[in-house]
Amino acid sequence: MPIKVVIAEDEFVVAENIKALMAARGYKVFSAGDGVEAVEVCRKERPDVLLLDILMPRMGGFDVCRVLKADPATKNIKILMITALDRMGDIETAFQHGASDYLTKPFDQEKLY
């Protein structure tokens, strides 16, 4: 069974590029354009990994992370924050909310695998 990945990214071009990279590697990929949709897709699809932007409409990435980690049905999803925010406080906040890892944009695509 392929690894399931949800990409939560509000910049369409960035989301499509990541989606193409992941699909080419054999991952089953779903996408969400905002935080609320990210929570809904994760609850429905139960992915192995969520690639999560922090700055998104309707619900930010920190809140998405907190909501998913508080839900027994989604708490085991590995969450990789992908964002342009690279201040130490942002990184600490991501880990406090349950992120598994943190990657700043722009990033080397090899770090996604």
What can you tell me about this protein's structure?
The protein is 38% helix and 21% strand. It has 113 residues and is an alpha/beta fold. It has a five-stranded parallel sheet with strand order 2-1-3-4-5, with helices on both faces. 31% of the residues are buried.
Nutshell version of this structure?
The protein is of the alpha/beta class.
N-to-C CA distance: 17 Å
Which spans have pLDDT < 50 for at least 5 consecutive residues? none
Q: Note the overall shape.
A: globular
The beta-strand count equals 5
Decide which structural class fits the backbone.
alpha/beta
**Integer average pLDDT:** 89
Please indicate the percent range of residues in DSSP E strands (runs of 2 or more): 15-25%
What is the helical fraction, as a range of percent?
25-40%
Task: Outline the biggest β-sheet.
Answer: 5 strands, parallel
Order of helices and strands: EHEHEHEHE
Strand order of the largest sheet: 2-1-3-4-5
How many helices? The count is 4
